[in-house]
Amino acid sequence: MRLISYKNRKENDIQTGLLINDDQELIPLITLGLPSDMNDLIKIDFEEIQNKISLKNDETSKLSLSDVKILSPIPRPLRNIMCVGKNYHDHAQEFYGSGFDSSGKKAVADFPVIFTKATTSVIATSENIVLANDYTNTTDYEGELGLVLRKGGKNIKPEDAYDHVFGYTIINDVSARNIQKQHEQWFIGKSPDTYCPMGPALVTADEIQDVTKLKLRTIVNDEVRQDSVVSRLIFDIPTLISTISKTMTLETCDIIATGTPAGVGIGSEPPIYLKSGDIVEIHIDKIGVLKNQVL
To answer: Omega of the bond prior to 270 within 30 degrees of 0, cis?
Structure first.
């Protein structure tokens, strides 16, 4: 299932929808007796969601995608987005050599580097990344695979980790690099308003046979900047879920951004920061394209 949150252009209520017909149309899930809030939807037993969606027919109400405004799949996450730093070998080397790495004394960490982004940083595809929120003018992009949990837990075993995943989306871990460096702990530099584009859809895990084979590309102004596959993660998805849950209880609807590959702006000499008018597109197979303009 390809799920979205949206607003009807004639109304202001947030709704959930099922994308159909090559993402040209959607079925409002409220017409199938399902919640209009994505967090509430994820909390339902997955089989119940599948069963209700299977009851749709040709007479089911549909909307054209052109008649709605797509929101982030989870417009306001219940908790901060959990993120992983330096989780591709090539980016770990790139970041370590950039002079912005305050996380340790070597490029590749022995354990996952975990930080969070504020919920207020989330925006949707087609919304603007606002540079005015970075007073240092050193804003950078980071294309990432994001996952959303359908159930939480403590001390989750790696072999059980995928059972906890509801689905996958795309996240741009936009970063204010000098703020990130100034504060050493990354939270403030990662959390300016509009600095977490997410979407366009939340694709349920059953739709993706092998998530490690997904290809990720970031394109800025038609130039490919990042090009990698999820299998190149240093710490894979089961390791991330297991590691985080060893000390804290993960909860249903938690979001984890898994890390970014090489090709970010600070990897160039001199660094190439985002500027007003830039278009950033992040493509991930089977999920879609997250596209945002810089303002």
So the answer is: yes
Shared domain for 116 and 197, answered yes or no, is: yes
**Within a domain: 222:** yes
Per-residue pLDDT tens digits for 127-149: 999 999 999 999 999 999 999 99
> Where residue 97 sits, what CATH number does that domain have?
3.90.850.10
Burial class (CB in 10 A: 0-12, 13-18, 19+), 31: middle
Q: Which domain holds residue 275?
A: 81-294
- 31-39: long-range contacts, CB 8 A cutoff, minimum separation 24: 31/60, 31/61, 32/56, 32/60, 38/3, 38/5, 38/73, 38/74, 38/75, 38/202, 39/74, 39/77, 39/78, 39/253
75 is a domain residue = no
**pLDDT per position as a tens digit, 95-132:** 655 566 666 666 778 899 999 999 999 999 999 999 99
